[in-house]
Amino acid sequence: MWMDMIHFITLKDVYFLNIYYFLPYFTCIVSNFSLSHSAGLSVPLFYVMLCFTFLQQMKLLLFLMVMGTVSAEIQDLSGKVFTFPRETDTAHVRLNPIKQDYNAVTVCHRSFTDLKRDHTFFSLATPFDTSAFLILWQNQEIDPHVKSERVEYGGWDYKPNMWHSICTTWDSVTGLVQIWFDGLPSIRRFIISGSITGTVKAILGQDQDTHGGGFDIHQSFVGMLTDVHIWDYTLSPCEIRHYTEEMHFTTGNVLNWSALDFEIIDNVLIENRFQICH
Ligand SMILES: [Ca+2]
């Protein structure tokens, strides 16, 4: 966790700290030097040391503020779920993937619901394409969308009140999409080729009809979602099996449930996945 936090202290933050440190430092020295000079004092060194000590404290405070901000955004959600307790057109989780352009995508998640109607698991939109990568249950099928193209996969044993693992893979060169439902593969079908480009907004629990919004209550998710990972490559069948069976697997390199960068908007709760009876 500590290493993750340090990792997210970027060059920009270092630059920010130094600018905000040196500018007041020199202002403090110059103003005190002028004051001491006009007062006929010959010991400006005292003021220089005062400025230095004071601003060292300021620098430490700023550094802790940056660290505090970062640690609030990144959480290890191992053993936790997002609970979507109500049908709304507002409640969702905004994910912050670490990259923008994709030549391939794999998204895996586990869900638990009793909804019979359409519902959205994952929605990734760019300013040009609100269905850049979308996974939803629609008309009793699992429908992956890539760059507004859609493939319908039916015939699954999608029982209510059970956990189900769904992984979706897509490659921009072949244009092939495939889903894995509870470890069972669909056929591989052509959907669309060419990369996903532009600023992405990734959301759990709602379908974006605009970039970051435009939600439809009748496509909202109600229930629990967990173990969301995103990779910028297609996972092998073995890796998907390891994910599905909750064995050791390589966590998402774009978005990782055990170090998740996210924000909750409206009524979504973080709860323990396993309710233990004592
Ligand atoms: Ca919609």
Give the SSE map.
Elements: H1 2-7, H2 11-38, H3 45-73, E1 74-75, E2 80-84, E3 92-95, E4 104-112, E5 119-126, E6 129-138, E7 141-146, E8 149-150, E9 164-171, E10 176-181, E11 184-185, E12 189-190, E13 201-204, E14 223-231, H4 237-244, E15 260-265, E16 269-272
Antiparallel strand pairs: 1-15, 2-14, 2-16, 3-13, 3-15, 4-9, 4-14, 5-6, 5-13, 6-7, 7-8, 9-10, 10-11, 10-12
The structure holds calcium ion.
Calcium ion binds near residues 209 and 219.
Brief summary:
The protein is built from four helices and 16 strands.
Could you list some keywords that capture this structure?
single chain; about 280 residues; alpha+beta; Jelly Rolls; 2 domains; 8-stranded antiparallel β-sheet; 16 strands; about 25% helix; globular; disordered N terminus; binds calcium ion; membrane; transmembrane helix; Pentraxin (PTX) domain-containing protein; signal
Strand content: 25-35%
What are the distinct ligands in this entry? calcium ion
* Largest sheet data: 8 strands, antiparallel
**Rounded average pLDDT:** 84
**Secondary-structure element string:** HHHEEEEEEEEEEEEEEHEE
**Rg:** 25 Å
What is the SS-derived class? alpha+beta
Overall domain count: 2
How many E-type strands? 16
Percentage of residues assigned to helices: 25-40%
Please count the helical segments: 4
